[in-house]
Design brief:
Layout: H1 3-35, H2 41-68, H3 73-102, H4 111-124, H5 126-134, H6 136-145
């Protein structure tokens, strides 16, 4: 496989990891350390790292399979944004169910805020994720950044 094809195939995974790692870092620092400092910090860190990787793999696989279907441009854009937001929303709900028990990040104490803080970024970040992946200027940006 040539270098360009390899880059294109790995791009959804790398981009998803960048997005999910940034989000999970925000949750770890803001929710795990500042708002809800009780609990084991190493377990919270392990949780957020695992979630970032798992979400990136899920998004990467689904978007790669979706793009392989070669739908028209509009369908590709809408489908990518929808699938990205759907996967991150499902992850938010899974995380909420788990955190309702552990309360490391406020899932038991502030469930509405917890779920909103997961769903809102999932939907809002779907737009730049899709643009970076599919727009020529977005791909140029990723190329300059080494993605």
């Amino acid at each position: 496989m040539d270098k360009q094809k390899r880059r294109e195939r790995l791009r959804p995974f790398k981009l998803a990891l960048a997005f999910t790692a940034a989000g999970e870092l925000t949750y770890f620092l803001g929710w795990g350390l500042w708002l809800y400092p009780a609990g084991n910090v190493l377990l919270k860190l392990a949780w957020t790292v695992t979630c970032a990787i798992a979400m990136a793999v899920a998004v990467g696989v689904v978007v790669t399979v979706w793009r392989a279907r070669k739908p028209d441009r509009l369908t590709t854009w809408i489908g990518t944004a929808f699938l990205y937001a759907l996967i991150l929303s499902i992850c938010t709900m899974i995380c909420y169910i788990m955190d309702s028990r552990f309360d490391y990040f406020g899932g038991a104490s502030a469930p509405t805020l917890f779920v909103t803080a997961g769903l809102l970024p999932a939907f809002l970040s779907a737009i730049p994720f899709t643009w970076l992946l599919h727009a020529s200027r977005g791909r140029d940006t990723l190329n300059r950044l080494g993605f």
